[in-house]
Design a protein that fits this description.
The protein is α+β, with helices and mostly antiparallel strands and about 550 residues long. It has eleven helices and 26 strands. Mean pLDDT is about 90; it is low at about 1-15 and about 535-544.
Length: about 550
């Protein structure tokens, strides 16, 4: 949630994109038998006293001094006062709602204050305005001007055993800044392996070395502990220039040195880290792709299952209201007005799922709402609303609630677009649902497969039901895993609880589209696909 640029209402001038990095120190310890499990949520003030959640960092287990790797990218307007609020929570459960988690403190400030300080440390405050113990939050701001990234493939060899006969190693890369060493990237943990190979990863040049290939970089290798007290296996310092010398045939090798063991007789190292690939590439931005002719294709899917309630009952989310509105209609209007600006022809294929449909009254999990399989498109959001209103009285809300058929339907078109070997089309499936899902395993498999295609999924939850299943699919902290163990190549699901944004269309727009720009740009860049009209785009050529 945290990677798209936030567009501020009423802004008419060009913005500067600013990346915010968050860390905390001396947080309150709210857990009895362990340390707090902190997460930082960023809220942006839109109008008056209304705040909306822009994004969250990852949650770090058992840590009172967290350094978060997830960053926030915000559009900075010099002429505007942009009020921000950073709230830190101790996460005690798996629900998306933060109100049932322990509050560790907050900081309210303006983006201008952060930008002018560049590196700002302030005390965290409780809701009553009193200090949250000795807790502090540090926010670093950096303007995004360099779009280059370093793509790395890294392995380890003969790492030290830290517990009996194994270690669970992970790496942390740090950039040297004026304020000290700043975390740039943290790899995944590989369990029970002294010769690990980590998944390929990428780090922006601005985060890793500020664009200077000779600037010092520190790499720490740790043995992971669930308690949060990770054991240092060893460290080394290098530069990007040195990392770039590594190849598959002759990796760049660096000895991990543990300072505590240096005085031991015969000590050589605590293992070797091998850089098998470090390639710097320029990247196209989201705007490069859009302005270069990439088409964003939205498909809308509406949940017509029985869990929504009888449409003749005023309590139903699908209530056939004489006044012409219900929860689903409100969501369609609000979200539709957000997405239609990004769809070039304003024609939306709209499908329903989970209802018995005429004339055979069989249950369908993928039927055109206008009952025209040859042309399921609706003209603009007005056409979507009209088709919904005409369709609803003709259906019998039924079940089960299966997401996978409509996901696979859109994935089929995305797969065809991939064969063009160009960034000409990107597909977005918008699912409006009450949150109940019955084919979770098939849905997980479908999402994992779709993660390798030019496709994203936005799930808008209506009503007040339990959305824990939707939050599970929106895997912000760890990549989604299919039942067979296959791991998604990226996070493509964005979940938005609609009731949190009713009456605030600006906040809704920002939340619905928050992750889409980075999902589009990162996907096409990872496959080195150019915009169709590359000369119209401001980005680089891969031949540069």
């Amino acid at each position: 949630m945290a990677l798209g640029g936030a567009l501020m209402p009423g802004a008419t001038h060009w913005a500067t994109k600013v990346e915010l990095t968050i860390s905390c120190d001396n947080l309150l310890d709210m857990d009895v038998f362990s340390k707090s499990d902190p997460l930082c949520a960023l809220y942006i003030n839109t109008t008056g006293s209304h705040w909306y959640e822009f994004g969250r960092t990852e949650m770090i287990l058992n840590c009172l001094n967290p350094k978060f790797t997830k960053r926030f990218v915000i559009d900075y307007y010099f002429e505007m006062v942009q009020r921000l609020k950073f709230c830190v929570y101790d996460i005690d459960n798996n629900t998306y709602d933060l109100s049932d988690d322990d509050f560790l403190g907050e900081l309210e400030c303006t983006l201008g204050q952060i930008v002018s300080n560049r590196h700002m440390t302030r005390s965290l405050l409780l809701k009553n305005g009193r200090p949250a113990g000795r807790g502090t939050i540090t926010i670093c701001a950096e303007e995004i001007t360099d779009t280059r990234v370093a793509n790395l493939e890294v392995s380890g060899r003969r790492l030290d055993k830290k517990f009996l006969w194994w270690s669970d190693p992970f790496l942390e890369f740090f950039s040297q800044t004026e304020a000290g060493w700043q975390l740039a990237h943290r790899t995944e943990v590989i369990n029970n392996n002294l010769n690990p190979t980590w998944r390929p990863f990428r780090i922006s040049m601005r985060s890793l070395c500020g664009g200077d290939v000779e600037k010092p970089i520190r790499v720490d290798c740790y043995d992971h502990h669930v308690s949060g007290s990770h054991d240092l296996i060893g460290s080394f310092k290098t530069t990007l220039a040195e990392l770039q010398t590594g190849t598959y045939l002759t990796p760049a090798e660096f000895e991990c040195i543990n300072p505590k063991k240096l005085k031991k007789k015969g000590y050589q190292n605590s293992g070797v880290i091998c850089i098998k690939r470090c390639q710097v590439e320029k990247e196209f931005t989201f705007l490069d792709y859009i302005m270069g002719g990439c088409q964003i294709n939205f498909t809308i899917a509406i949940d017509f299952t029985g869990s929504n309630g009888d449409p003749t009952n005023p309590q139903s989310l699908h209530y056939i209201n004489p006044e012409g509105y219900n929860e689903y209609l409100t969501a369609i209007w609000a979200v539709g007005n957000v997405i239609q600006d990004y769809d070039s022809n304003k024609k939306f294929p709209v499908f329903g799922f989970g209802a018995q449909i005429p004339p055979s009254w069989h249950v369908s999990h993928e039927f055109p709402v206008n009952f025209n399989p040859e042309n399921p498109f609706c003209e603009g959001i007005e056409g979507v609303v009209q088709a919904y209103q005409q369709c609803l009285p003709q259906l019998k809300l039924w079940g089960p609630t299966n997401f996978s058929p409509i996901i696979n339907h859109v994935a089929c078109f995305a797969r065809q677009a991939m064969r063009q070997n160009m960034a000409s089309q990107y597909f977005v499936l918008l699912i409006i649902t009450d949150g109940v899902i019955t084919d979770m395993d098939h849905t997980r498999t479908a999402i994992v497969e779709a993660s390798r295609l030019p496709m994203s999924i936005i799930i808008v939850g209506v009503g007040g039901a339990d959305f824990s299943a939707m939050e599970f699919l929106d895997s912000d902290d760890t990549l989604l895993r299919a039942p067979n163990g296959d791991v998604a190549s990226r996070d493509i699901v964005q979940f938005v609880p609609f009731r949190s944004f009713q009456g605030n269309s600006v906040a809704l727009a920002q939340s619905v589209l928050a992750e889409l720009p980075d999902q589009v740009a990162s996907f096409f860049n990872s496959y080195k696909l150019k915009p169709p009209n590359v000369f119209n785009a401001s980005g680089p050529s891969w031949r540069d």
